[in-house]
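Ticket opened by: R.M.
Priority: normal
Category: complex prediction / small molecule

The reporter submitted a protein together with iron/sulfur cluster and asked that the result be attached to this ticket for the collaborator who will pick it up next week. Submitted input follows.
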Amino acid sequence: MELKVSTPWQLAMDKVKSWARINSPWLVHFNSGSCNGCDIEILATLAPRFDLERFGIKLQGSPRHADILICTGPVTRLARERLLRVYEQMPDPKFVVAVGSCGTSGGIFQGCYNIVGMIDEVLPVNVFIPGCPPRPEAIIYGVVESLKTK
Ligand code: SF4
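Result attached by the on-call engineer:
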């Protein structure tokens, strides 16, 4: 087995990168089969009333630039592959937040013919935010808590 040795410069750069990412995480949002209720709460969280950007947290269109995947709904058969593709494109360290009862347990969609299951059955989830749908305060709390998991 080959041992990887980091120089003091690389270690310092890694520390700076981690500090910057944890203090200004960017989100990518994916609806894997939600009824849209949770997505509307995510939009409310990003709007000026709750103003998530004051914490340095902002929505990012591309998974290649995102730190946190915020996912809603159960995972449908159609969305499974796309969800995995989005997750694989994100750089490490990456975090997954499951928003809503459907994402955390399957919710009202449990047992449907077109549902693979909850998000945890497809991706490693760092934080679950229950609720149907959860309030913006809960979503903000969950996003902040997810950063403490690595
Ligand atoms: S938790 Fe409620 S609001 Fe969210 S996707 Fe499920 S049914 Fe819709």
